[in-house]
Amino acid sequence: MSVIMKCTTKARIRILKGGWQVAEDDDESKYVKNLAVNLSIVGNEKNGYHLLMEPEGCFVADSHYESIAEAKEDASDSLGVKDSDWV
Fold this sequence. Notes:
Number of helices: 1
Shape: elongated
Mean pLDDT: 97
Strand order of the largest sheet: 2-1-3-4-5
Strand content: over 45%
Structural class: mainly beta
Number of strands: 5
Number of domains: 1
Low-confidence stretches: none
């Protein structure tokens, strides 16, 4: 699958044992770090699209969507990525 678009943003990431998640706004745990997160959207119309999320020093996680617009909307909702951030 080829990369359709990508961007990098900063986000508060909670480091978990064996994983990570986007931190809640009120999470002040010592396990929350401000990290660069590389994002890519890959896929095609036939098979759908994946939003790949890779915080600095963490493994890649992905989510599946029917459209590029849905993937971008989730990146906006969860990580604050603006439409103009994508290249």
